[in-house]
Each structure stands twice: as structure tokens, then as C-alpha cells.
Specification:
Among the domains are: 175 residues, Citrate Synthase, domain 1 (Orthogonal Bundle); 111 residues, Cytochrome p450-Terp, domain 2 (Orthogonal Bundle). The radius of gyration is 22 Å and the shape is globular. Helix 6 runs antiparallel to helix 7, helix 7 packs antiparallel against helix 13 and helix 12 crosses helix 19. It has 442 residues and is mainly α. Strands 1-2 form a two-stranded antiparallel sheet. It binds carboxymethyldethia coenzyme *A. Carboxymethyldethia coenzyme *A binds next to loops.
Amino acid sequence: MDMLKQRFKDKALALFQKNREMLKAHGDMVIGETKVSQLFGGMRGMKSMIWETSQLDAFEGIRFRGYSIPQLRQALPKAEGCNEPLPEGLFWLMLTGDLPTQEEVKWVTEEWKKRSEVPEHTFKMLESLPVDTHPMTQYSLAIVSMQTESIFARRYAEGLPKSEYWDAYYEDSMNLIASLPRLAAYIYRRTYHNGEHIAPDPSLDWGANFAHMLGISESPDFKSLMRLYLTIHADHEGGNASAHTTHLVGSTLSDPYYSLASGMNALAGPLHGLATQEVIKWILELTENIGTDEPTEEQLAEYITETLKSGKVIPGYGHAVLRKPDPRYMAQRRFAEEYIKDNKIVNIVWKLFSVVPPILEKWKSGKVKNPWPNVDAHSGSLLMHYGIKEFSYYTVMFGVSRAMGVLAAGTWSRALGMPIERPKSMTSEAISQLIANATVEE
Ligand code: CMX
């Protein structure tokens, strides 16, 4: 058994036992109530699932196994000459709860290299699609097409016992994550660079190799950005749409390929991961409409108000849980301040930070609960700076990172023996009836 799998097994068996005892003793304890407004309001704040890999606080932002993003930047192993964390280390941390050593991270890098092959039929399937197919459609289809390789599906058909589901899920997750940079880079090159592909470089780590295969910049700074980017987008606890979708589909014992593709379809929505493309699209339209790439705060304010009046959202702003600027935004801003001097799009992104919140705070009589930027408000400007100007591609990059979190969490779900998800739905009429009954009782 490989060393990461062994470490996971020890931790998972211990937690499985502990949870069984906890459930026996405290299974009836009530930990929350459900309000009518939550049923009609996208289930905000409803506690409904177990998610081990990260936890989101409305004011502090995301913590991965207790570590904030600035803490991770200090604590996770790094590639030589780079100050940003290696995403492989975050995967280890999410899976085991322990910070990895440099050697352990090196092991993950090498293991993912061995597992990084993409089946030939996946490339053929991609080639059968029109070249202007949205990159997220290509990405989702490509992941499903690799389902032919699922160890979980094969072993399940052979009679895999429930106690070993996690083992097969782990194998598929490792294989899938390992192959995603190659797959995602292939989609980029076929869509935007005449199918001129760049071979992987076996000397590089997972994130740097992705940067290399995109074929846009060999600058060490771009490789550093990719390591940071792939680390911070990985997980945002379990309730966000891509994580929850992967979790729900996985609970049916659909294998990791089906589950991840489903999660990626959720990520492709403009209120979720597609917002990263929408931000840059909106900023480029803004510069064109205003007629300058150095707009004043007044010009920005006017444009923002026009966007809102036309019934659209300001992409990259607001959040279902967060009530402060997103630490993932702040991490990217810190990177830009350190590495990028005077980029016009980055400057607009920074100006929007002061102009958007006061407008959103007043919009619809204060209905917008969080006027601050989320992760997607900054990411595109960094990618543009290094030469990835095709914004329709950005969500694929988000999806490469998100795979690490949702598949680590999925492995935990199988190890903890989680059942098929089946919450209760209600009709509006049933709720009206409940309200009527409660009013009569009063
Ligand atoms: N621009 C304009 N209106 C906004 C807004 C924004 N950025 N953010 C919220 N609102 C509006 C909502 O549309 C809602 O209006 P209606 O009741 O008329 O429909 C009202 O404010 C209340 O919404 P909320 O409770 O503050 O926010 P939600 O939890 O419902 O939605 C989110 C959260 C992210 C979908 C929303 O803020 C939004 O649409 N933001 C823009 C899209 C975006 O950046 N998404 C990326 C999020 C991060 C990610 O998942 O990657």
C-alpha cells in the first residue's frame, strides 16, 4: 500500500470508529433548525453534510484543515526558488489532516507523474467536437470519457465490499487528478492554438507542468502563480455547488469520473465558477464602452450602476457565505502586488475594490448581503497578464484545482461509509398548510 493511502487508511479507520460511537451516544442531538426562508432561499446555512477537508467562516474565509491561506503559504512545502505553496502538499493535507514534509510532497509529485496518462480515446473524442465548443463542455465530456478507466466501477461490478470503497475511490481520484493538467492543457491548445500541443516536462511538479503545457509563458513567475492558483481554488467546504454536486452524485456510488464531471457542470454556472470568465468579459466590455483602459472611479461607478440597472449582477462580487473580502482574492492581490507592475486590467480590478462595495451596499435597499469581492474578481486579471487572454477557458483552470478538494472529500465520504443522499423536499402548499396549522394553534 502506498504511503499516502496507508496514512489515509489509519486516519479514516480511527475516525470511522469514533463517529460510530458518537452517533450511538449523541445521534438524537439537535444541531440546528430549518426556517421556511431557508427552503425558499437556497438552503443557506442549513447544516446537512459532513465535509472533512475544509471549513468556511463568513468573516475569516476558508481554512483547510484549520489552516488559513496565509498560514498555508508559510507551512506547505515549496518548489525550489518559489515562495508559493505546492498544491500537491494541500492535497496531502486535505486527505490526511497532517502537513506533509518536503519528501512526502515530492512523493505525490512523482506518483501523479506516473498516473498522468490520458486515454487515447479521450483525445479522439475531443477532436470530434467543434473547436468552438465551450472549454467547460470539453472538460466535462473529457472527464466522463475517461470513466472507462474507473477502478471503482470495475471493482464494484466485481463485488467490492463497502469497507473497501474508499480504496478504489482513492485510486481513481489519484489517477484523475494526475491526468487533469494534461487534459486541460490539451483543451486549451486545441481550442486556441491550432492544436499545437506541448509535451509534459517530467522534471516539473504538477502545477508548473500545467503552466508549461499551456505553452504561453515559461516564466518562473507564471509557474509560481499556477502553484498558488491551484492551491487556493481547491476547496471551499462542502455546500458550494461544485462540491455539493460531486458529493451528491458520489453518494449514489457513481464513480469519481461521473461525480467530478457532474461537479464541473455545476462549476460552469455563471453564479459559481463561470464568474471568473464573466469578470474579465465585463471588464473588457467596460473599457470598450467607456473608451479607456484607465477609467476614473466616477466612470466605473456609472458603468457599475448601468450594469445593475440592466438587471445583471456584478461578476466577482458577493457570496452566499462570506461577509468580508475573500482571502483567496487577497492572496491573488498580494501576488499581483509582488510580481506585477502596472498592468491596466489589474489596476481596474483594484479600483473596483473601492468602487463596487459602496454601490452594492445601497443597491436594492441593502439586499446584497456581501458587497465584497470573491475569488473570481481577481483571477482572470492575473491570467491575462501572463498571456492567457481567452477568458472562456478560465473556469477549466478553476476546475483542475477544485478536483483536488472534491475528490479528497469524496474519498473521505466513502471511508466514513456515507449513505446515498436523500433530503426531504416540500411543496409550497404543504408549507402554507404548516403555517396555517401553527397560526390556528397560536
Ligand atoms: N451584483 C448584483 N446583485 C447581487 C450581487 C452582485 N454581485 N450579489 C448579490 N446580488 C443580489 C442577488 O442577485 C439577490 O437579488 P434578488 O433577491 O433580486 O435575486 C440579492 O442581492 C441577495 O443575494 P445575496 O443573498 O446577497 O447572495 P446569494 O447568496 O443569493 O448569491 C452569489 C451569492 C455569489 C450567487 C451572488 O452574490 C452573485 O450573483 N454574485 C455575482 C456572481 C459571482 O461572482 N459568483 C461567484 C461566486 C464565487 C464562486 O462560486 O466562484
